[in-house]
Specification:
326 residues, 3-stranded mixed β-sheet, globular, transmembrane, transmembrane helix, membrane
């Protein structure tokens, strides 16, 4: 797992004859080893962790602080003590952080010096053996070694919209690139039903946390209404996104045939890529604007609401209430 993280961070570079060294991700590294273009890298897991700039003790301490804050927040709710919108927003980020701690527990941090792998096979020969003739690439010559984007991916449509609206990641100033972005969306084994279920539960819970502040005390009635509208907007955008992915998964091939007379596109991203750029931007831009306004208000109000908190927000927890009295 650590080797895969290291490769996907763009720290493993391949040096082929006649071309500058370029990064290879975990999929490409596995492909090169399986096709005998390189030997299995002699990189020990311990050596990878030695290059990790994140201190294990600091990670544990941070996790303890996060859990302690979560316990306090739940305890205040049990004792009917007020929580601020700022604390509620912190709970949402804590929810994300706990997931990040778990899924990235094997990921080294801030490894910058690349590990160079020598390959005696030319890129042209690798492409020829793969049945893929040399052609322009967007990142590295091994772009063809990529798993197909899953039809049911919840993340891929988001990154597609980002690339369309902000022209992000569509081209590099220098090829081959020197590092990878953090937008890998498909694991090597594909996306399983359990992944989809967990993704739906996680995102629903994260966006739903802000709705818990529906009846919180706010300095003004207008701020309370704006909080409710923003929370509902974020949750509504999530439901819309999930519905669009489900609809696209089922109807993508038919839409491609009906609208574009295309029989090759079978996924929602395949259909979206057939749209003219101006139309794709027109469809995605309002969604990003609405999301940005709603998310921005949630963040700003978390600070502004601190100017007028209810009295119970200043009360301390009475931990003895949780101890059974015999």
């Amino acid at each position: 797992m650590r080797h895969a993280f290291l490769a996907d961070m763009g720290v493993v570079h391949l040096k082929c004859p006649g071309i500058p060294a370029f990064p290879v991700d975990s999929h490409q590294l596995l492909y090169l080893v399986e096709h005998n273009h390189i030997e299995y890298p002699e990189i020990k897991a311990k050596a990878i962790w030695d290059r990790n700039k994140a201190d294990t003790f600091a990670r544990i301490l941070t996790l303890v602080q996060i859990i302690w804050f979560l316990i306090q927040a739940v305890s205040r709710w049990v004792q009917h003590l007020a929580l601020s919108t700022f604390e509620l927003s912190c709970l949402a980020f804590i929810f994300c952080s706990i997931n990040t701690f778990f899924f990235f527990r094997h990921k080294p941090r801030d490894v910058e010096t690349p590990s160079l792998l020598a390959c005696n096979t030319t890129v042209a020969k690798i492409l020829a053996e793969a049945g893929d003739r040399p052609k322009p690439y967007t990142q590295t010559p091994l772009d063809f070694v990529k798993p197909p984007i899953s039809r049911t991916s919840l993340i891929a449509p988001f990154w597609f919209g980002v690339r369309i609206c902000f022209n992000w990641g569509n081209h590099a100033d220098e090829l081959p690139i020197k590092a990878f972005g953090n937008s890998t969306t498909t694991p090597p084994r594909g996306i399983r039903v359990t992944d989809i279920a967990y993704g739906n539960i996680f995102t629903t819970a994260y966006f739903g946390i802000h709705l818990a502040g529906w009846n919180f005390s706010f300095p003004t009635r207008a701020e309370q209404i704006l909080w409710r509208v923003s929370s509902l907007t974020l949750f509504g955008l999530l439901i819309f996104h999930l519905f669009a992915v489900a609809f696209g998964t089922v109807m993508a091939a038919r839409l491609a045939r009906w609208l574009f007379n295309n029989r090759d596109a079978t996924t929602i991203l395949g259909v979206a890529s057939l749209l003219p750029r101006w139309l794709a931007v027109l469809i995605h831009s309002p969604i990003f604007v609405i999301y940005g306004l709603a998310r921005g208000y949630i963040i700003v109000e978390g600070f502004f609401a601190l100017r007028a908190l209810p009295l119970s927000a200043f009360d301390s927890l009475n931990w003895s209430n949780f101890v059974p009295h015999l």
